[in-house]
Specification:
By secondary structure, the chain is of the alpha+beta class. 13% of the residues lie in helices and 34% in strands.
Length: 489
Amino acid sequence: MASTQSTARRAPRNVVLSALVSLLLAAGVLAGASPAYAAPSDLCARVGYEAGFRGDALVTAVAVALAESSCDPSATNTYNNTPPSRDRGLWQINDYWHPEVDDACAYDAQCNANAAYEISNGGTNWQPWSTYNAGHHLRHLDEARAAVDRLGHHEPGPAPLVYPAESGRVVSARSADGRLEVFAAGADGIHHAWQTAVNGAWSEWEPLGGPGGAELAIGPNADGRLELFAINGNVFQHRYQLQPSGGWSGWEEFGGGGKDIAVGANADGRLEVFASGPVGVFHKYQTAPNSGWAGWESAGGGPANSRVEIEKAPDGRLEVFALNGDTFQHLYQTAVNGGWSAWEDFGGGGHDLTVDHNQDGRLEVFASGPVGVFHKYQTSATGWSGWESTGGPADAQLTSERSPDGRVEVFAINGSVAQHLWQTGVNAPYGSWESFGTGGTEVTAATNADGRIEVLGTSRAGVFHKWQTGFSSWSEWGWLNTTSGPAVD
């Protein structure tokens, strides 16, 4: 992997409402208009409701539209778009990432809302919108709630789902302000770097101490503070942001040692941690959002010394997948925020796994082994396909993320080669594996605030990254900044 320094990239957009509408509002010309058009936000609330958004999802949809376009159906943005493209209409549907939405639809208020409903999976996934990823919609929530209340439709409805981040020896997640943070586990402990601006360049690495040679997991508390977990064979510790996007606590004890960990957020915001060890899988959960923790409990068995990942079903229930060399099993919440099923067989053993979700919410599971990578996907809320071979590198470390248009992309790395494959369309089959670089020891993928995937790969030389510049175009591999970061075996 060649060494290069990252450069600042696309900043979040904020399209200003047209001067004409602003003047009319300031002069009170619209004061006598019908309630549905009393304010620009009322238009977004009305067409959002007609598209199918309900409850908290409708409030979030209006807030995102206010952040994206100020609820101006004619709004267009081209500034800082990479690759060059146009964001169009109320929810600023991009013509590069979503060519299926033509201009006639994009600039029609109701058609734009319908497209936003489909792309966001009914308001449960706003990751394709940069303003949501960067938290810019939060400043518009009061205005959005008022518009939904005026509409008379603030009944219960789904809130956006918070999907777990990949666990491993290198992990990355966005802070509340949209900047990515990355943690990598070296023999001397955990090292940390972060974007100095949203979608931008990276800081130098800083050493944090903590368990050496650890497996890591990271998740957001309900208030937006990230929490990091680190485990090795003897020690389990965690640390957390003291405020959203702010500084961090010191390391605190979290339990005994083990093999691997994963963390996910319940639908009510409580974090839940799973850890594997020689006698199976255990879990521990927050007793209230942003609060303290219950004691460790057995998860009812599970594969010993397994690799563990968590994903979220379309209705908000967490699902846990655990794989060792002989066994692959999973268990799932029987109700949102509820108890857990018994472990069920999910396939044979393997080397590593990654779990992601289609744009329609259905889960996709990939597992590597001595003859390559296989995958299995939900066919319904409770049904699964059989295992299908994809080819790919043998005994690879795996990760996955979603492109801005909702297609799942999978990355695999072993000691000799890095490769990737991606869906040929939204919710569609996959293409063939293509080269992604030379070999390494670990890989993880995260999304920038503008939706572009950023991949971090490790080796005994340090930590590299590579980022998306288009549908199928990527930067070169390089250091995050001027230093390599820790060696990761």
